[in-house]
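Milestone 3.1: sequence recovery, worked example.
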């Protein structure tokens, strides 16, 4: 029984960690984390084998980018809604150009034969890829949909909160029960102390009574002498 409880507890912790990672990943795919870090989902195989399909890439902005860097950028500079899928592209820089001090980048997917048609401007670049996490992208992409958010985040989170509330109620009841037990023990001790005090008092009273009785003197009646004299022949 204890082993099953330990296994269930470990499984429960793993679920919480997984939910936390998915929630954080979903948030960072839209918002910017401290340090400028962002998370994006790669749903194509254009960067295989370096970045597999359905991977998550961690991206950080840089002041400049060099040839060979893998960058994430807006597919269409006029559409920058990160909540929508297909908004970004993650490809490698194969050439850097400078036009009047403005850098532009020629990009290409490692698995693609031809480079991308459009040059990428510095303003369209979201950042350089630091590393990738395979397979996590499908979960995050699904979570970004309404059904996925309810299924992966809302329902498990509600069950966890409900479970924790039940545990809190259970602990409160146990605490109240312990206090009642302690109070009953204290009252019982008080009753025993009072009974012992009464017994001691009765015993002391009995001893005092016995002592008084033993010290009491028994009075013997005295015979009074008279001054009457007896003469010979008198009776």
């Amino acid at each position: 029984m204890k082993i099953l409880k330990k296994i269930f507890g470990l499984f429960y912790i793993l679920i919480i960690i997984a939910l936390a990672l998915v929630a954080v990943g979903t948030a960072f795919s839209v918002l910017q984390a401290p340090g400028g870090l962002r998370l994006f989902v790669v749903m194509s195989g254009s960067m295989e084998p370096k970045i597999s399909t359905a991977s998550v890439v961690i991206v950080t902005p840089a002041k400049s980018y060099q040839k060979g860097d893998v960058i994430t950028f807006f597919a269409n500079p006029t559409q920058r809604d990160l909540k929508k899928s297909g908004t970004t592209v993650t490809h490698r820089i194969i050439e850097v150009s400078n036009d009047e001090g403005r850098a532009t980048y020629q990009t290409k997917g490692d698995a693609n034969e031809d480079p991308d048609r459009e040059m990428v401007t510095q303003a369209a670049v979201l950042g350089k890829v630091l590393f990738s996490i395979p397979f996590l992208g499908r979960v995050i992409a699904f979570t970004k949909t309404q059904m996925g958010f309810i299924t992966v985040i809302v329902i498990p989170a509600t069950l966890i909160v409900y479970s924790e509330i039940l545990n809190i109620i259970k602990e409160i009841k146990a605490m109240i029960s312990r206090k009642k037990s302690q109070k009953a023990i204290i009252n019982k001790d008080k009753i025993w102390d009072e009974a012992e005090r009464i017994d001691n008092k009765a015993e002391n009273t009995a001893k005092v009574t016995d002592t008084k009785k033993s010290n009491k003197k028994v009075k013997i009646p005295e015979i009074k002498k008279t001054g009457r004299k007896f003469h010979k022949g008198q009776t």
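The longest helix spans residues 146-215. Strands lie at 38-42, 55-60, 70-74, 88-99, 102-108, 120-121, 125-133.
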